[in-house]
Design brief:
heterodimer; A: mainly alpha; B: alpha+beta; five-stranded antiparallel sheet; 5 helices; 40% helix; globular
Chain lengths: 256, 177
C-alpha cells in the first residue's frame, strides 16, 4: 500500500510540475492571492506556509515529494511517509482544499492510514489493524455512498445522467464516444450501463465478505477506473483508489 | 512486522467505531462546523458524493476591451487526450481544476448577500477566475499588459447543445492586465 501511494504521489507531482506556471507568480493559483485565505491563522503557521507554499518554493516542495516517494519505493520508512502525509496536506491547502477533488481525498485517507499505522505501531500492532480498517472502510464507503446517491435519482436509473456525462464538454469525452451515445439507439445500452454501475457501487461492501469476493470487486473496480481515466480523463482516481485496495483485501479476511 | 489478522472483536469494533464517526461526520456536514480542526476531520471523513449530477456547466469567456471587434474568447478550452493520459494527464487535470474554480466562484455568486458585490470582487475565488481569464487572453495573444478586459460566467445545460444554450450569470468589472 505504501509503494502504491508512492507511485500515485510521483505521478501527481510530475503532473503538477508540468503545469507549474499555473501556480507561479503570475499564475492562476499565485500565493499572493491564496495567502489571503490563511491570514487569520496564527502567525507562526502563516510563516511556515509562506516558507513552503510561496510561488518560488512550491515547485521544490513538489520535487522533494517525488524524491521521498521514490525512497518509499525502495524502503518505506516512517520519516518518508510522514513527509508525504504532511506535504500532501500542504499541497491540498495550497489549492484551497483539493486540486482534483476525490482523488486528493482518497490520497489523504491512504496517507493518513499509513502514517497512523506506522507512527503508532510501537504502542501495539493493533494500531496497524485500525489503520488498515480505516482505509478499507473509507474505500467501501466511497463506492457505496456514490451508488446510493445515484440509485435515488431517476435520471441515473434511466441512464439519462450517464448520457449527459458522456455528451458534456466538461470532462473532454472523446468525440467518437460522444457521437456513439448521441442517438436514441443507445438508450438501452446506457440504461443497462447505468444499472450495472449503480449495482456495482451499492454492492461494493460485499467485497468484505471474503478474499475471493474482494478480488472480483477489485478487478471490476480497476476496469471501472481505467475506463474513467480514458473516457473522462480521471487518471488520478485510478492511482489513488488503487493504493487503497490492499487495505480492502486485508479487511476481507474478517470472516475467515 | 506482524500485523494482527482481523479475526478479533476488537478489530470489528474499531471498524464500526470509525464507521459511526464517519457517518456522523458525513451527516453533520450540513451543519455549520467552523474551525480548522473540523476542516481537518472533514478531510479524514469525506462525503464521497461525487459525480452525482451534471446539472449545469459553468463557462468562462473573456474579452479585451481595446479590441471590440473581437468576440469573447473561451477561457477553459477543450484538451485532447492520448492513451498516455491514463498515466499522466496534466493539462486535463488542470482543466478540471479550472472548472472547479469556476464552480466555486459561481457558488459564491449565488450565495452573495445584498450589497456584498465589492467584497465579492475582492475575494480569493474572484482573483483566481480573473487570473484564468487574463492568462488565457494573453496565451491567445489577445491581451497585453495595460489593456483593459472583462470576463463573464455563463451556465449551460450539459449535453450536445452546451455551447448554444448559455445563460449569462455574471459580467465582471473592467480590469487592467
Amino acid at each position: 500500500m505504501e509503494r502504491l501511494i508512492a507511485v500515485a504521489v510521483i505521478l501527481q507531482s510530475l503532473e503538477l510540475l508540468q503545469i507549474r506556471s499555473a501556480f507561479g507568480v503570475d499564475g492562476i493559483w499565485s500565493w499572493s492571492n491564496l495567502r489571503r485565505d490563511s491570514e487569520n491563522l496564527p502567525r507562526w503557521i502563516l510563516w511556515v506556509l509562506d516558507q513552503t507554499l510561496r510561488d518560488e518554493r512550491f515547485p521544490f516542495l513538489i520535487f522533494s515529494r517525488i524524491l521521498f516517494a521514490l525512497s518509499i519505493l525502495v524502503l518505506p520508512k516512517l520519516t518518508s511517509i510522514s513527509f508525504l502525509w504532511i506535504t500532501h496536506l500542504l499541497v491540498c491547502g495550497r489549492f484551497r482544499g483539493t486540486f482534483n477533488g476525490g482523488s486528493d481525498y482518497m490520497a489523504t485517507v491512504v496517507l493518513t492510514g499509513i502514517f497512523m499505522g506506522r507512527a503508532f505501531s510501537s504502542y501495539g500492532s493493533v494500531w496497524l489493524a485500525v489503520s488498515l480498517g480505516y482505509v478499507g472502510f473509507q474505500l467501501c464507503l466511497s463506492y457505496f455512498v456514490a451508488g446510493v446517491s445515484k440509485l435515488k435519482k431517476p435520471n441515473w436509473r434511466s441512464g439519462r445522467a450517464l448520457r449527459e456525462f458522456f455528451q458534456s464538454e466538461y470532462y473532454g469525452v472523446p468525440e467518437a464516444i460522444r457521437k456513439r451515445v448521441a442517438g436514441s439507439h443507445s438508450d438501452l445500452f446506457l440504461t443497462a450501463l447505468s444499472a450495472g454501475l449503480i449495482a456495482f457501487e451499492c454492492f461494493f461492501p460485499a467485497a468484505l465478505l471474503s478474499p475471493q469476493a474482494c478480488t472480483v470487486f477489485i478487478a471490476i473496480a480497476l476496469i471501472f477506473h481505467l475506463g474513467n481515466a480514458w473516457i473522462f480523463g480521471l487518471n488520478r482516481f485510478l492511482w489513488a483508489w488503487g493504493a487503497a485496495y490492499p487495505a480492502l483485501f486485508w479487511c476481507s479476511h474478517f470472516w475467515k | 512486522m506482524h500485523i494482527p489478522v482481523p479475526n478479533g472483536n476488537f478489530a470489528l469494533f474499531s471498524i464500526l467505531l470509525l464507521g459511526v464517526l464517519g457517518f456522523a461526520f458525513a451527516k453533520s456536514r450540513g451543519a455549520e462546523l467552523k474551525g480548522s480542526g473540523w476542516a481537518f476531520l472533514r478531510t479524514l471523513f469525506p462525503s464521497w458524493r461525487f459525480f452525482e449530477d451534471l446539472n449545469w456547466v459553468p463557462k468562462l469567456d473573456a474579452l479585451n476591451l481595446e479590441r471590440m471587434n473581437e468576440s469573447w474568447s473561451q477561457c477553459v478550452p477543450d484538451e485532447k487526450r492520448s492513451l498516455m493520459a491514463v498515466v499522466l494527464n496534466p493539462r486535463g487535470n488542470l482543466r478540471l481544476a479550472l472548472q472547479s474554480a469556476l464552480e466555486q466562484l459561481a457558488s459564491e455568486l449565488a450565495d452573495l448577500p445584498e450589497g456584498a458585490e465589492r467584497a465579492f470582487a475582492q475575494s480569493v475565488s474572484y482573483g483566481i477566475v480573473r487570473q484564468i481569464a487574463q492568462n488565457r487572453l494573453m496565451e491567445l495573444g489577445r491581451l497585453k499588459r495595460g489593456d483593459r478586459y472583462q470576463f463573464r460566467i455563463s451556465s449551460t445545460q450539459p449535453g450536445p447543445e452546451e455551447d448554444s444554450s448559455k445563460d449569462e450569470l455574471f459580467i465582471s468589472a473592467v480590469h487592467e492586465a
